Amino acid sequence: MMKTQIAHALHSVEQFIQLWKGQSMIQPEQFISESVTFSSSYRGVVTSRENLISFLKQDFISHDHVDIQLSNVVKKSSGSTSKISGYFYAQASKNQEVYFGGMLIFTLKNEYIQDIKIQLNWVDGNKELLSHWILPLDSLWKPNDPMTTISSEFNSLWQKDWMSNEDAETQIAESWYRYAWALDLADTSLHIENFTENATTDLPPMGIQKGKRNIISTLKAFRMPWPSIQHYGEPLHIEIDPSHKSAYMIIGRIIPNQSTDKDGQKIYAAHYQIELQCDDDTLWKIHDMKYISGWVRQG
């Protein structure tokens, strides 16, 4: 039942992305609640399905082409309510191109979207193509800067006891998504559950770090001066030990405006080699993680 509910919820989120691009073939009444709330950092807040549809039509009304992709997708549920979070990276064009991306969180009742939060984190290319948007800041915080739409300490799917009935491979992939989310949103407290006590990492430019405390302290210092940081990734290989207490995973690092080759095949700018351990609470934690530069393909 829970898996079916999550599948329906994910389908609704995918339909929203199609609607945002202006390519939906399904009526919004089939997946968006009439009383939906939409909060965004780039254009503010709207309520009601009718207003949201009109609002979204203005986002890319003058563009010739729009593509929006999701990654780092995490799915949870509690009763009839589902939560789905993820990263998005996108491209819009009209003679020239603009690239942009960020994070989003959906709350659904059964398959109907009740609440949407979108945080725009970065923009690259011709920013004039998004002149009607509020673009993310390129500098550190200063007084009177706008509030963020997504605050991990309050909105993260890992902050409450949301259930996950996913298979082991999905839970293992989620361990890296949790790491990336915590790093990109500066939620240091969320890192506490990301690593084993004696974990090691080798991540440029931080170098080799040993022990949970050293890793988290270094990640915190690394993150602070970089407000637009965002780590897109996709599992390329997962291997689980027969004991189900350890696993090995390869994550491909996605660079949004270079995610495919000239033939349209997925490519990755680097990869992570990750060893994981499963604790007594069935939570997969990173035990060793290395970042390897260099372009790779799946397989």
Give a description of the structure.
This protein is 23% helix and 41% strand. It contains six helices and twelve strands. The strands form two sheets. Strands 2-1-6-5-4-3 form a six-stranded mixed β-sheet, sandwiched between helices. A six-stranded mixed β-sheet has the order 8-7-12-11-10-9. The protein is globular, with a radius of gyration of 19 Å. The model has no long low-confidence stretch (mean pLDDT 92).
Key terms:
41% strand; Nuclear Transport Factor 2, Chain: A; 299 residues; 12 strands; alpha+beta; 2 domains; six-stranded mixed sheet; SnoaL-like; Nuclear transport factor 2 family protein
Give the helix/strand layout.
Elements: H1 2-21, E1 32-40, E2 44-47, H2 49-59, E3 65-78, E4 81-94, E5 96-109, E6 112-125, H3 152-155, H4 168-184, H5 188-191, E7 195-203, E8 207-210, H6 212-223, E9 232-240, E10 246-254, E11 268-278, E12 284-296
Parallel strand pairs: 1-6, 7-12
Antiparallel strand pairs: 1-2, 3-4, 4-5, 5-6, 7-8, 9-10, 10-11, 11-12
CATH-defined fold name of the largest domain: Nuclear Transport Factor 2, Chain: A
Helix content: 10-25%
According to CATH, what is the class of the largest domain?
A: Alpha Beta
CATH architecture heading of the largest domain: Roll
* N- and C-termini, Cα separation: 33 Å
Q: Counting H and I runs of at least 4 residues, what is the number of helices?
A: 6
What is the beta-strand fraction? 35-45%
Q: How are helices and strands ordered from N to C?
A: HEEHEEEEHHHEEHEEEE
**Sheet with most strands: strand arrangement:** 2-1-6-5-4-3
Parts with pLDDT < 50 across at least 5 consecutive residues: none
Shape assignment: globular
Biggest beta-sheet profile: 6 strands, mixed
Radius of gyration over C-alpha positions, nearest whole angstrom: 19 Å
Compute the number of strand runs.
Answer: 12
Number of domains: 2
Mean pLDDT: 92
Class by SSE composition: alpha+beta
Domain SnoaL-like: 168-289
Pfam family, one: SnoaL_4
Protein name: Nuclear transport factor 2 family protein
InterPro entries: NTF2-like_dom_sf, SnoaL-like
